[in-house]
Amino acid sequence: xxxxxxxxxxxxxxxxxxxxxxxxxxxxxxxxxxxxxxxxxxxxxxxxxxxxxxxxxxxxxxxxxxxxxxxxxxxxxxxxxxxxxxxxxxxxxxxxxxxxxxxxxxxxxxxxxxxxxxxxxxxxxxxxxxxxxxxxxxxxxxxxxxxxxxxxxxxxxxxxxxxxxxxxxxxxxxxxxxxxxxxxxxxxxxxxxxxxxxxxxxxxxxxxxxxxxxxxxxxxxxxxxxxxxxxxxxxxxxxxxxxxxxxxxxxxxxxxxxxxxxxxxxxxxxxxxxxxxxxxxxxxxxxxxxxxxxxxxxxxxxxxxxxxxxxxxxxxxxxxxxxxxxxxxxxxxxxxxxxxxxxxxxxxxxxxxxxxxxxxxxxxxxxxxxxxxxxxxxxxxxxxxxxxxxxxxxxxxxxxxxxxxxxxxxxxxxxxxxxxxxxxxxxxxxxxxxxxxxxxxxxxxxxxxxxxxxxxxxxxxxxxxxxxxxxxxxxxxxxxxxxxxxxxxxxxxxxxxxxxxxxxxxxxxxxxxxxxxxxxxxxxxxxxxxxxxxxxxxxxxxxxxxxxxxxxxxxxxxxxxxx
Length: 563
Fold this sequence. Notes:
This protein is of the alpha+beta class. The protein has helices at 3-20, 26-32, 55-66, 87-90, 98-115, 121-124, 137-151, 158-175, 178-190, 193-196, 216-227, 234-241, 248-260, 264-275, 296-316, 334-340, 368-373, 382-393, 408-411, 421-424, 426-430, 432-445, 479-489, 491-506, 514-526, 531-539; strands spanning 46-52, 197-204, 212-214, 329-332, 351-354, 460-461, 464-465, 469-472, 475-478, 546-549, 557-559. The chain has 2 domains: 3-260, no CATH class; 273-489, no CATH class. It is 50% helix and 8% strand. The strands form 4 sheets. Strands 1-2-3-10-11 form a 5-stranded antiparallel β-sheet. A two-stranded antiparallel ribbon has the order 4-5. The longest helix has 21 residues, at 296-316. It starts with a helix and ends with a strand.
C-alpha cells in the first residue's frame, strides 16, 4: 500500500472516530494497517476527543520540534467555524479532504527532507549507520523514538516504534540511503492522525468512581495549545510522564509558570484571533474606486495593530480587560499612520501611539481593523458592526435576516434623499419582520458611523452631517468613545470573554454551562479582570478535564463539561 493511500485511510478512520466517538484506536489500525495506540505509561488508550491542529498550531509545532529554520510551505485546508462558536470548537469535528491531505503529505515530505539533509541531520541523528547506503534498524530507532515523543505528544508504543522503524528500513534499500529511509518514516509520522489531530485520551477518575478524566499527556497537550498555541515542550511531557498534571497543586504551579512566560503572548494572540474571527482578514477586499488608498500592505497592518494593542494592554501592562475598550494607547506603522492621519517617527516598523483623552479612536472598537473587517466592500455597515459586537464581544447571537429582505434602499448610497446610513436603515428598523434584529444591532453600529468602510474618519456622508449617537441595553452614548465606555461597564462583556476562554480550552461551547461561566466571571472580577488570571483559572478548573459517558450515544465516551 502506498504511503499516501495509507495516510488517506488513516484520516478517513479519524473521521469515523470523530463521527462515532470511538473509544479506542483499533479502528484506525484496522483501516490502515498501522499499529494501534495501545496503553502506555500515563495513558488509558481510550480516545474521547480529537481536534485538528490549526494552521498556526501546526507551524508552531514544526518550529518547536525541528527548529525555526525548517521551512513549511503549502496550503492549509481551513477548519470550518460552527455558527456562533470558535474555530477551537470546529476543530473537534473537522475532517480533511483528499486534496487537503495531499497538501499535508507534500508539506510532510518537504519537512522530512530538510530535517535529514546534510545541514540538519546532525541535530537529530545521534548515531552513525553501519552503512549509509543500507538500513540500520537500531540507529533508526534511536532517531525516530525521541522524535515520535514530540510529534505524537506522548511516548510511542512498542508497536508504533517497530512500525516506523520498519518503514525506514523498507525504504532504505530501494533508495540506497539510510537517510532517505528516515525521511519516509518521518513524513509518515507527520501525516498520522496522532500529529495532525490533538488526540485526547482518558483514564478512570479516582475522585468520581465510574467517571473518566483526561490523562496526563492529554492535559499536557491541552495546556500547551491553550496557553502557548504549540506542542508540549520537554517540561510538560516530563511532568505528564511523572503524573504531575493530575495533581491539582502541581497543575497550578505549572500553569502559573506558563501564563507568566513570554510564550503566553502567542496563546493570547491565537485566542483573540479566534474570538474576533480574524480569518476574515484573509478575504478582506475593498472597492478600489471607493477606497483607492486600501491595499494589501494596509490590510496586513490592520489585524496586527489590534493584536499588538491587545497584548500590550493585557500582558505587558497587565491591564483590566474592560479597559481594552477605552485605552488610548495603540501602535502605528506608516501605512496606518496615513489612514489615521497621525505622525510617525519611523519609516518602517511599529511604534507606540497615544490618542488624546476622549478621542473616538480609543479602544479596539475605534481601530481601523475592526471597522474595516465589519463593513462591506464599498460602504460601512452599522448592522455588521453592531452584530459583531453583540455576537463576538457580548456572546449574544443575532438571527440571520429573512431570505426575502429588500436591501435596495440600504445599498443605494448615492440616493440624495437618504444620504446617511441612519436614514437608509430606518425602513428595516420600522419593518416588523426586520425590527427585532436591527433594534439590537443598529443602535450600536450607528455610533461608529464617523468611520467609513476602511476605518477612515469622516464627519459627513453625501454632504449630510453624521449623527453618531448610539445606545446599548438602555445606555445612551455618543460615538466610539462612548460605546467603549458602555462596553466596559456591561457585564455581558466580561461574561463573554470568560465563556470564550472556557470554550477555547475545551473545544465545547459554554452556552449550557452558565454555572461555570458565572463562577469564572466572578473570579475574573475579583482578580481585576486580568487575562492571565482568567486563563490560569480555566487551565486549573477540574470540570474542564472531566469526561462522562453519553447515554444518548450508546454509552460511548465524549468530552463533556460536568453538569
